[in-house]
Amino acid sequence: MRATRWYPIRLTVTVVVAGLAVTLLVWPQLFGAQRALILSQVVAFRAPTAIALCVGAVLFASIACGKRSWGVAAGLAVVLGAGSIASGGILLGRGAADGQPVRGEVTVVVWNTQGGAARPADVARLVHDVDADIVSLPEMDERAAAEVARILATDGHGMAAHTSHGETGYSEIPTSVLIADGMGVYEVDRAAGSTPGLPSVVLRPVGGDGPTVVAAHPFPPLPWRMDAWRAGLEWVANQCDSPDVIVAGDLNATADHLWGLGDGDGLIGSCADASLNAGTAAVGTWPVSAPPWLASPIDHVLAGKAWSVRGASAVTSFDDAGSDHRPIVAELDRR
To answer: Which residues are within 8 A (CB) of 102 and not within 5 positions of it... i.e. 6 or more apart?
Structure first.
């Protein structure tokens, strides 16, 4: 009799606690916890989270079917199922469209080459295929970037290569940038600093005519370096204060992590995310060992207010090129 009397309370408490926990996993932004330890790692992989919640829902549903006191198990099944549907719905809303975007005024490519695992010849082939104007290459050193530029020059695609080793002037993991000759002459703005831990670089047109180009590579959200990761994302947000900026890089962050770093109009700073605007932000770029619908979309092209997004897509045809990242190609028009 006593157990029966307390059962509704136990059921309510269980469902409420489970609902809060699932909400925290699916939408940590509600609690401002999208960049918190553990939750940031979980929300980075929405599709696996949705699958895990679905499996849990099915498990508790099967338990409920076989018990006389089925309420708690059924309640948990409903909560987990709702969480799975919500997480999957968020991904669907961000879009998984595929295909080559329509050519814009400026074509931007970002490809983390995994410390040189992607060969210069493959990078040059991609750049040539999409006729890129700006190419951000996290983890590519000076020698490889120069080789990419040399290969492209033989095809009449002149590009200037720049490489940064961060604020200290040295890093085992550099970041390189290629800018088409038609964009004008660019130089590194050393006063702009860099993301901590891994190098990012800001380039400005020498004559002042052209977009500010930022190749960004914040430190990943490792449990022992969360502060460096957060500081890196804040550095990127600060670069997005300029309306004419174009940011391209491996941000080690999804759109969920960037939530709350915008100024109201932009996703981060004043910048819009090209993939979000193009309806392709659910396509995962890391790791390539996972299919695009299962991987995490952590590579981005961001555009300031002076730019509109014509299209963006993750490129899957280079999954066997050696890198653990998929490239992103974005097409931008000046407003």
So the answer is: 310, 311, 331
